[in-house]
Protein backbone atom coordinates (compact mmCIF):
# COMPACT_ATOMS: atom_id res chain seq x y z
CA UNK A 1 0.00 0.00 0.00
CA UNK A 2 2.67 2.51 1.00
CA UNK A 3 5.69 2.40 -1.26
CA UNK A 4 8.74 4.52 -1.60
CA UNK A 5 8.34 8.25 -2.06
CA UNK A 6 8.72 9.49 -5.59
CA UNK A 7 10.32 12.71 -6.77
CA UNK A 8 7.03 14.59 -6.83
CA UNK A 9 6.20 13.66 -3.26
CA UNK A 10 9.66 14.66 -2.03
CA UNK A 11 9.41 18.03 -3.77
CA UNK A 12 5.99 18.60 -2.21
CA UNK A 13 7.27 17.74 1.28
CA UNK A 14 10.31 19.99 0.82
CA UNK A 15 8.06 22.84 -0.37
CA UNK A 16 5.78 22.49 2.65
CA UNK A 17 8.79 22.38 4.99
CA UNK A 18 10.18 25.50 3.31
CA UNK A 19 6.92 27.37 3.88
CA UNK A 20 6.57 26.20 7.49
CA UNK A 21 10.16 26.57 8.71
CA UNK A 22 11.62 29.12 6.31
CA UNK A 23 14.85 28.91 4.33
CA UNK A 24 17.08 29.78 7.29
CA UNK A 25 15.90 26.86 9.45
CA UNK A 26 15.96 24.10 6.80
CA UNK A 27 19.72 23.32 6.98
CA UNK A 28 19.55 23.21 10.78
CA UNK A 29 16.48 20.96 10.62
CA UNK A 30 18.15 18.64 8.09
CA UNK A 31 21.26 18.36 10.22
CA UNK A 32 19.20 17.49 13.31
CA UNK A 33 17.22 14.87 11.38
CA UNK A 34 20.44 13.35 10.02
CA UNK A 35 21.94 13.09 13.51
CA UNK A 36 18.74 11.52 14.82
CA UNK A 37 18.63 8.99 12.00
CA UNK A 38 22.28 8.04 12.53
CA UNK A 39 21.70 7.59 16.25
CA UNK A 40 18.63 5.44 15.56
CA UNK A 41 20.60 3.24 13.14
CA UNK A 42 23.41 2.89 15.66
CA UNK A 43 21.04 1.76 18.41
CA UNK A 44 19.20 -0.59 16.06
CA UNK A 45 22.48 -2.21 15.02
CA UNK A 46 23.53 -2.57 18.65
CA UNK A 47 20.23 -4.24 19.54
CA UNK A 48 20.57 -6.59 16.56
CA UNK A 49 24.07 -7.58 17.68
CA UNK A 50 22.84 -8.17 21.25
CA UNK A 51 20.02 -10.41 20.01
CA UNK A 52 22.41 -12.39 17.79
CA UNK A 53 24.79 -12.88 20.73
CA UNK A 54 21.89 -13.99 22.92
CA UNK A 55 20.75 -16.53 20.33
CA UNK A 56 24.32 -17.83 19.97
CA UNK A 57 24.58 -18.29 23.76
CA UNK A 58 21.24 -20.15 23.84
CA UNK A 59 22.37 -22.40 20.98
CA UNK A 60 25.57 -23.27 22.84
CA UNK A 61 23.57 -24.12 25.98
CA UNK A 62 21.34 -26.51 24.02
CA UNK A 63 24.31 -28.50 22.70
TrEMBL record:
Record-annotated membrane-spanning stretches: 6-26
UniProt keyword annotations, A-Z: Cell membrane, Membrane, Protein transport, Translocation, Transmembrane, Transmembrane helix, Transport
Subcellular location per the Swiss-Prot or TrEMBL entry: Cell membrane
Keyword Signal among record annotations: no
Topology within the bilayer: Single-pass membrane protein
InterPro entries reported in the protein's UniProt record: TatA/B/E, TatA/E
PANTHER family, sorted: SEC-INDEPENDENT PROTEIN TRANSLOCASE PROTEIN TATA
Subunit structure: Forms a complex with TatC.
Homology family: Belongs to the TatA/E family.
Designated name of the protein: Sec-independent protein translocase protein TatA
Organism: Alkaliphilus flagellatus
Amino acid sequence: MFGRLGTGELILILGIALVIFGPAKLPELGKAMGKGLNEFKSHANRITEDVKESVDVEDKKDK
